[in-house]
């Protein structure tokens, strides 16, 4: 069922959650190829987008023309700064602005951004209002269930943000205090959906293709967002169960995209390590293989090691945990 965000129509309401150090251009290309409907950049601090000149800011905020429509996620505590950064993101080609009001990281919260805004509904409203009024493209917001069990105010925040013109709300159904522990409260997603009229996207404990439909049926959410469930598993968006050969092919494709995108090949090999861990999950002797790969600095040697590792398996076999797709 298609989902509309402003003038953008997305054929599949399957969202990838912005994840620091993960949802870069190469990763987004891979998951879109496998059926992800809506993608967004990693979270970028508004001031960093405006004032930052270092290579990392440029890489985080990069938008590939071939992936349009794609959103840019911003965070910040100053309405004026978020407004200015939103205009810059629009000029850079973002199809929508997503404001993060749910990140539980200490370095973000101590700046008054991310989940800290859950405790300041009026400031959250001011930030949303400033962004909405400064751009022609839609503004969406990501929140959490609340600050902690005593301060669960997702519905209140949702109603406030809707009044300010936010086009869509995604909610991670855990509190800031929970971070990523415990179970996500899908009842909270249903409650939010019943109280506001703008589209609601549910997030939390989506680890298989079947979870997409189960969450939509259980909560009435307009879309479903996956985070950790997509790491090393782009097939979660299609429901395909990948063979060992398909995993190898996708890993190598992702590695090639990664090295082509980043300007420092040596650093790119290091930052790709986590993807090797995720892609090889469930394969026999993967832990030993990873340790050996992590000691290498040569692209050619690493490629040879990857081929040698996968050649040990029946190409048509399945890893032990690939049924989670």
- What composes the largest sheet? 8 strands, parallel
Question: What's the CATH H-level superfamily name of the largest domain?
Answer: Aldolase class I
Residues in helices, as a percent range: 40-55%
Whole-number total of structural domains? 2
Structural class: alpha/beta
Average predicted confidence as pLDDT: 95
Question: What is the fold-level CATH name, i.e. the topology of the largest domain?
Answer: TIM Barrel
Principal-axis shape: globular
**Strand element count:** 10
Uncertain spans, ≥5 residues at pLDDT below 50? none
CATH architecture of the largest domain: Alpha-Beta Barrel
Order of helices and strands: EEEHEHHEHEHHEHEHEHEHHHHH
Q: Kindly estimate the percentage of residues that lie in beta strands according to DSSP.
A: 5-15%
Highest-level CATH class of the largest domain: Alpha Beta
Helix count from the secondary structure assignment: 14
How far apart the termini lie comes to 20 Å
Tell me the Rg in angstroms: 20 Å
Strand order of the largest sheet: 3-10-9-8-7-6-5-4
Secondary structure elements and pairings:
Elements lengths: L2 E3 L2 E3 L3 E3 L8 H9 L10 E2 H6 L3 H6 L10 E5 L3 H14 L3 E5 L5 H4 L11 H14 L4 E8 L7 H10 L4 E8 L10 H10 L4 E4 L5 H11 L3 E4 L17 H18 L3 H7 L1 H7 L6 H9 L4 H12 L15
């Amino acid at each position: 069922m298609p989902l509309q965000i402003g003038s953008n129509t997305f054929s599949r309401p399957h969202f990838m959650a912005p994840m620091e150090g993960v949802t870069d251009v190469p990763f987004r290309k891979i998951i879109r190829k496998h059926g992800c409907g809506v993608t967004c950049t990693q979270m970028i601090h508004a001031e960093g987008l405006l004032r930052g000149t270092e290579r990392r800011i440029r890489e985080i905020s990069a938008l590939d023309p071939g992936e349009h429509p794609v959103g840019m996620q911003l965070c910040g505590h100053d309405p004026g700064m978020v407004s200015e950064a939103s205009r810059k993101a629009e000029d850079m080609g973002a199809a929508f602005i997503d404001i993060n009001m749910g990140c539980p990281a200490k370095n973000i919260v101590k700046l008054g951004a991310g989940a800290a805004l859950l405790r300041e509904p009026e400031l959250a409203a001011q930030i949303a209002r400033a962004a909405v009024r400064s751009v022609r493209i839609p503004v969406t917001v990501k929140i959490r269930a609340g600050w902690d069990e005593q301060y669960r105010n997702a519905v209140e925040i949702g109603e406030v943000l809707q009044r300010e013109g936010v086009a869509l709300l995604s909610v991670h159904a855990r509190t800031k205090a929970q971070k990523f522990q415990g179970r996500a409260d899908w009842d909270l997603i249903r409650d939010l959906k019943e109280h506001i009229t703008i589209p609601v996207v549910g997030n939390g404990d989506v680890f298989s293709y079947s979870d997409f439909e189960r969450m939509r049926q259980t909560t009435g959410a307009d879309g479903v967002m996956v985070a950790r469930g997509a790491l090393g598993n782009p097939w979660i968006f299609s429901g395909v169960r990948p063979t060992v050969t398909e995993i190898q092919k996708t890993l190598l494709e992702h590695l090639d995209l990664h090295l082509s995108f980043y300007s420092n090949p040596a650093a790119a090999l290091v930052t790709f390590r986590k993807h090797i861990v995720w892609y090889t999950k469930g394969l026999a002797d993967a832990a030993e293989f990873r340790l050996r790969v992590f000691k290498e600095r040569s692209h050619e040697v690493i490629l040879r090691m990857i081929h040698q590792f996968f050649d040990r398996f029946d190409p048509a076999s399945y890893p032990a945990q690939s049924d989670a797709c």
